[in-house]
Amino acid sequence: MASESSPPAGPSNPATPRRRPTIREVARRAGVSHQTVSRHLKGDTTVNEQLAATIQDAIEALDYRPNLVARAMRNHRTGRLAVLLPPGSAISSLEILSGAKEIADAGEYVLEVVTVSGSAEMRDRRALELRDSRLFEGVLALTSLSDLPQPDDARVPLVTMPLYDEAMRGIGALASAGPEHEIISRLAGMGHRRFLHLAGNYAHAGAVRRRDMYLQTIEELDLESAGVVDCGWDGDAARRAVVDLPADSGITAIIAANDILATAAVSGAIRRGWNVPEELSITGWDDTRVAAVTTPSMTTVAVHHAELGRRLMRHLLDVVASRRRGADDASDPAPSPLEDDWRLAEVIWRESTGPAPQTPPAR
Asked: Which residues form the HTH cro/C1-type domain (predicted)?
């Protein structure tokens, strides 16, 4: 007789792993062949509705779940795609994933996000493990990987489009500063000649590129810079920078590295008694929700993250389809989603910018 501490014998023992039902057991319960069950699971419309209902009842009664690994080994179709990201969070990544999921859903794929961390070697190894696991039909890496080998017979493509570094900071296309040139050029056309730049945190590639584009454009257009103030995304630093400006600085336009710094600059201008934009034009970056509703509404740069996600996912699906067709060339057949005339970022002109004043603010 078993002691009270011994687990009970028999099938009711919760410590005994429950065996997964098989497709043949489903077939026996439904009174059909296992091939018919397989056709039903694949969505074959030649299985009549009554038979499909009987099979579905058997599936639910047995709590049957297809073995995705076995299915993947047989036909390389799992209906799953993976997106690799470094650990951390960024609003832009949520928007990119939203756009990517929209396209994946339309293609009847499940999109899974996998975080990859550690050293570059560890990230590479994890990416290869996912590619070779046969659990996914395509893998999209949005973080930097080494120049990993892509075997000629690889059915699962690993597409790398680095948008984030290991600390989830924007790089590559997300660190573009091109619109800064457009902003300064247009303000120069409105009569502005002396500018100030409120820079962000230089640990972010975008902050460095915006500073560099500012300096490059000022020189190119033969304008004047009153300097670069390193604010590090700190609104208080940006506000102080404006409050502490000499009364005779001659500055009529401030180019801020993001909307937080730009909004703080407006606050500093109000404290000085300067009207925006009548006496001082101010621009930001990111097109945050606050930028559109603040007073005055902020001229800024909108980055189309969701559309970028859609384009990246279409690109991945193009590569997946090419591999499935057995293309002779194992390289990606589709052009980069950023190689056409589409603009990832655009300037949104609002109330915080206007013509240069006849006399610069001197209060």
From this structure: 22-65
Contacts of 31 (CB under 8 A, 6+ apart): 54
Alpha carbon distances (Å) from 36 to 31, 69, 223:
10, 20, 75
The torsion region of residue 191 among left (phi > 0), alpha (psi -120 to 50) and beta comes to left
Yes or no: say if 101 and 87 are a contact pair by the CB < 8 Å rule: no
Domain that holds residue 267: 175-303
The gap from C-alpha 176 to its chain's centroid, in whole angstroms, comes to 14
Contact 335, 322 (CB under 8 A): no
Q: Is 283 helix (H, G, I), strand (E, B) or coil?
A: strand
297 and 181 share one domain = yes
Q: What is the pTM of this model?
A: 0.76
Compute φ and ψ for 226, nearest 5 degrees: -85, 0
What is the residue type of 6?
Answer: S
Looking at the structure of the chain, the number of domains it has is 3
The encoded tokens of residue 348 equal 């949104």
Q: Let me know: does 299 contact 347? Beta carbons within 8 Å.
A: yes
CA distance 109 to 80: 5
**Model confidence pLDDT, tens digit, residues 158-208:** 999 999 999 999 999 999 899 999 999 999 999 999 999 999 999 999 999
